[in-house]
Amino acid sequence: MSLLEIQDLKVHFPVEQRLFGRAKEFVRAVDGVSFTIAPGETVGLVGESGCGKTTLGRAAIRLINPTSGRIIFEGEDIAALSGKELRARRRRFQMIFQDPFGSLDPRRTVSDILGEGLDVHRLAPDATARRQRIDALLKDVGLDPSHASRLPHEFSGGQRQRIGIARALAVEPKLIVCDEPVSALDVSVQAQIINLLQDLQSEQGIAYLFVAHDLAVVKHISRRILVMYLGRIVESGEAKEVCRAPKHPYTKALLSAVPVVDPDSKRQRILLAGDIPSPIHPPSGCPFHPRCPVAEARCKTEVPPLRELSSGHQAACHLTT
Ligand code: SF4
Fold first, then answer.
1. Ligand 1, closest atom to CA 234?
2. How much of the chain is in helix, strand and coil states, percent to nearest 5?
3. CB of 299 within 8 A of CB of 285?
4. Strand partners of residue 177
5. Atom of ligand 1 nearest to the CA of 250
6. What is the best residue among 229, 291, 296, 306 to mutate for testing ligand 1's pocket, by most ligand atoms within 8 Å of CB?
7. Measuring from atom 8 of ligand 1, which residue has the nearest CA?
8. Which numbered atom of ligand 1 lies nearest the CA of 294?
9. Which of 30, 205, 253, 313 pairs as cysteine with 237 (C-beta 3.0–4.6 A)?
10. How far, in Å, is the centroid of ligand 1 from the Cα of 304?
11. Residue 233 C-alpha to ligand 1 middle, in angstroms?
């Protein structure tokens, strides 16, 4: 059984409110997305800035309310839960944020930050158990327990992200949405954080939805990859297969931007024209057609469905077989 099953999820934000009336226009940030995550699995969600991936990651764990669709977590539709019911389940799904500088309260000690989840969900019966748990969490993420009384500004960027990871781990989640968790860090620190996330997954069986714009990072950590463009999934499949034989022209362009180590590689960079279009007025037909290097006439009028091309590998393009 899937740990998480997203069914036809939509998140539309109103952008213009008529006086005394309903919203006239909407940003279609997420526009009919479906996917699953198995227990202990890492699914990578990749796309350019503005494609809707952060909104999707947040909506998947109800940090943003969806407009429609179902979010089945451990067999229960959490899209339909009220605030109190949702709060009681929140410890099962957590988030690690992109900005390790902005996501930690600068006035609270590490002990306070990690202890909050323990207190809210009553996971430590007394002060001794609370302190022991905080020490264990700091050790789990490679930090010194004697630093629990320090404030966030006393740590480096990588260490702060470790604190963010420890905060998520404190409530023993089954799923963590990692929203660009390494993109604000130095390259040398990125690998350490990725390795830490992988080690924690092997030890604790946590599933990750790993959101990133950098396909090189997503490819390294994920078992499966979802490629998102303008609020929709345009390709999905096993990470190795998607990277070895991408089907969608957008995925091909993203992959062509990933640096290759092999100096003899003949791979050519595919430059995409223009920026991602507005999700308020998405293009007709295939939403990628204004930037697609191989678009045909029908791409302007016919929406390509997400089709299964081989076992577990899907793409939304008229030309892929
Ligand atoms: Fe390009 Fe057409 Fe395929 Fe869209 S459907 S990706 S425009 S070839």
1. 6
2. 35, 25, 40
3. yes
4. 95, 209
5. 6
6. 296
7. 295
8. 8
9. 313
10. 8
11. 13
Q: State both tokens at 215.
A: 């396909």
- Name the residue among 213, 124, 209, 221 with its Cα closest to residue 175: 209
Element (H, E) at 62: none
SS3 state of residue 187: helix
Q: What is the pLDDT of residues 228-284, one digit of tens each?
A: 999 999 999 999 999 999 999 999 999 987 766 665 666 677 778 778 888 888 999
The answer, as to whether pTM is greater than 0.90, is yes
Tokens encoding 258? 């990933």
* Nearest CA, atom 5, ligand 1: 317
Distance 247 CA to ligand 1 centre (A): 10
For 182-201, how does the pLDDT look when each residue is reduced to its tens digit (9 = 90+)? Answer: 988 998 899 999 999 999 99
**86-104 b/e with 16+ CB inside 10 Å = b?**
eeeebbbbbbbbbbbeebb
Q: Which of 219, 272, 259 is nearest to 243 (CA)?
A: 219
pLDDT at 294 over 90: yes
What DSSP element (H or E) covers 210?
Answer: strand 207-212
Q: Pick 42 or 17 by higher pLDDT.
A: 42
| C-alpha–C-alpha distance, residues 31 and 33, integer Å | 6
CA 212/CA 48 separation, integer angstroms = 8
Cross-strand bridge partners of residue 228: 233
**Secondary structure (DSSP) of 242-298:** HHHS--SHHHHHHHHTS--S-TT------PPPSPPPPSSSPPSSSTTTTT-TT--GG
The ligand 1 atom at the shortest distance from the C-alpha of residue 248 is 6
Tokens of 230: 């303008």
